[in-house]
Every structure is written in structure tokens, then in C-alpha cells.
Amino acid sequence: AGQCADLFESISAEIISAMILGGALVEKARLGEELKTGFILFPLAVHCLDILVSSIGVFFARTTEGIPEQKADINALEDPLTIMKKGYMVTLVLAAIGFFVLCRCAFYIEAQPDNWLNFAMSGLVGIIIALVFIFITQYYTDYNYAPVKRIAHSSLSGHATNIIAGLSVGMESTAIPVVVISAGIIASFYFGKACEFPALPAGENIAGLFSTAIATMGMFSTGVYVLSMSGFGPIADNAGGIAEMSRQHTNVRAITDRLDAVGNVTKANTKGYSVGSASLACFLLFSAFMDEVSILSKQPFAVIDIAIPEVYIGGLLGSATVFLFTSWAIAAVGVAAADVIAEVKRQFRADPLILEFKSKPNYKHCVEIVARAGQREMVKPGLLSIFAPIIVGALFRIIGMYQARPLLGAQVIAGYLMFATATGILMALFLNNGGGAWDNAKKYIEKGMHGGKGSEAHKAAVTGDTVGD
């Protein structure tokens, strides 16, 4: 339950913000009512395109039937991720072609014939960002690459060095995505600024903002395929569990282990994809927040000065909120895990035949424990995310009233949102990639590396895998 809920949220926010910005651009640029439909409905058209091209791309994810033990003409098992990426590349190419067609249909203006091309290039920027994120996540979470192998090698020295190496990989994995996101935002914004809208006032940035929204639409133009790859992860994981519990042949387990390892990568891919798209979305939502403050206060509100102590304090509080939320969320997982372990031990004591595979455990009760704990323990983090910005804003608004600074509360909240967003992006990338890397480091050792299953290195990797999960 809740699979890819973060990505669905990002998609919903982006559709709404892009439609609002498109309508506002038509109004401010005085383009005429006949063009408003294309600018407003464009995001919906992109998602229709997404469903079409992703459905076509799935048909290109084909495998060769059979395994090396049964067919002499098959030398080795195919890489599942390579197969899925083949289908994704087809989806990506079709999405790029379709995106240019949609931009030509929606944004062509006779008086400014090149504007649609600038918007299409912004979409291409988003498509490229999506592809780059796939490769970055694969590099940091797939055991065919150096970072995961580094964690596996560190397991030879014990549990502590495994944890240290995993933390190092997770932190390192935040750098390149941030550079990619930054380049994408600035490139798409400049493409929008290059569009010609003579009626726009000097210094008006709405064309750049709308262009950034289009870049996010470009990222989402292959979203259905990415979501299907994400769904592959838990399915492969559970298939591996079924194979192990039913004592299938080692050949079966070898295949499910490989699928499980790839599933860890695809799950991390989706989270990274979601973080990247949310990063672009947050830039738009932050601008929308400032516009809303200007409308409500009837005062210009276009610049935030972080050199003001109160604004800087708001930023620190925003960053601290991310860490506090993460801490409570991790603690919630710990509580749920402890409840499940206690239940498993209880079932083993009550029915020793479970360990001999002569009796079935009560899986349903364990699932119920996790579901109840997930709902109960996440109340506190959820309330924090709702009430923390309200309390901070209200407090500094009161302080501003006594200092004749009516916009102080809004300025502090702007700093709060800016710092919290930046910190949240980094935290999400760190936890996402670090967790996937730890998981696949264990899978790498289970392939027979560094002593294989049951070795001291494997025991250390199991600890890292548990932390990663």
C-alpha cells in the first residue's frame, strides 16, 4: 500500500502548477483566448502521451526463453535491468518525438514562431534529466559498479566498517544529482526567458517559470514506465521470499536473487526520479508562494534576504524540521520492526514445527502489526510537517507586528521553505541511494564474493542491509 505515493503527489502538484502558470502566462502576455486552451491543457496531454509511449515501450522489454542449464545456446542469464532499460529507451525516444509534436500544437504563435521550440527544448531538458537520474541511481545502487562493491569489500572488516562505507556512498550520491537538477532548472528557465512575449512587463519571469514546469512535464513523459519498473521491485522481492520458503532449487533462487537485486535498483530509480521531479516542482511552488503573499498583502514580495537574522533562523528551523521528521520516521520503523520480531518469536515458541517447515506461520497477523504500526507511528511526523511551518510563521508574524514589519512572518516562512526543500532533497537522495547500495552489497556477497553466504562478511552485510531497509 502506498507504493510510489510520493511520485503521484509530485505528478499531481506539477499538473496543477503547470496549468495555473500556463493560464497566467496567456493572461499576462495577452495572447488571446484561443491560445489559452493549449497552454492550460498541455500537462494533461503530456500524461496521455506518457500512457501511450510507456505502453509501447513495455512491449520492447523482451527476454530470451530458457536458462543456461537447460539450453546450450544460452551462455549466461540476461541482465534484467538491461532488458528494462531497452524498453525505457524506446519509451524515451517516443516521448521526445511526441513532446515536440505537442509543443508545436499547443504553443505555436504566428507572431512569435520560435517560442514553441524553446518550450520543446525545455521539455527535452526534463527528458534528459530523467535519463541521467536513471544512470546515476544505477551507478550507486547496482552491484556491478564500484560504490556497492566498496561496501561489500568493507564488510570483510566487520559490521562497523560496512555501516561507514554505506554512509559514505549515500552521502557521495547526493552531489551529482544536485548538479543535474541545478543545470536543468537554469537551462529550462533560460529557454523560457528566451521566448518573445512583447506584452510581458520588463523583469516578468512567468515565461521562465512556465518553461521550468514544462521541463518537469518532460521528466514525467515516461512516468508510467518508471512506475512499472518500481512495481517490479517488491514483486521480485516477494518472489524471492516465496522461492526460499518453498525450498525451490538453487537455480530458481539464483534467478530470483538477481531479479531482487535489480528490483532494489528500480525502486531506488523511482525514488530518485521522484526527488528530481519534486525538486523542479518546489522551485515553482516557492515562486507561487511568493506570488500568493504579494496578492494577499497587496505589497511586492519578490526577494528573500537571508542576511536578515530572522529569515536565517527560519531557514535553520526548516532544515532542522527535515532531520527531526526523518528521526521520528526512522524511530517509527524501529518500533514496528520490534513488534514484528516479538510476534515472530512468539509464534516460534508456540509452534516449533514452523522452523521445521511442517507448520505454516500466521503471516496475516504480522502484516496487521506492520499496517497498524505504520498508521500509528507516523501520526507524530505527519503533525510535525503540518504544524511546524504554521507555528514558525505565526510566531514571527507577531514579532513583526511589534516591529512594524508586516511581512516578517512571510519572509521567515519563505526562508523556512527554501532551506527545508534543499535539505529534504539531499536527505532523500542520501537515504534512498544509501539504502539500495547496502541491500545490493549483501546480494553481491551472496553471489559468492568475499566468502559468500554464511561468511563473516555476509553477516556484516546483513546488518548493513537491515539498516538500509
Mean pLDDT: 86
Gyration radius, in Å: 25 Å
Strand content range: under 5%
Helix coverage percent of residues? Answer: over 70%
Global structural class: mainly alpha
Spell out the helices and strands N to C.
Answer: HHHHHHHHHHHHHHH
Query: Which of globular, elongated, flat, extended, rod-shaped describes the shape?
Result: globular
Question: Would you count the extended β strands for me?
Answer: 0
3D architecture notes:
- This protein has 469 residues and is an all-alpha fold.
- It is 78% helix and 0% strand.
- The chain is built from 15 helices and no strands.
- It is globular.
- It starts with a helix and ends with a helix.
- The relative contact order is 0.12.
- The model has no long low-confidence stretch (mean pLDDT 86).
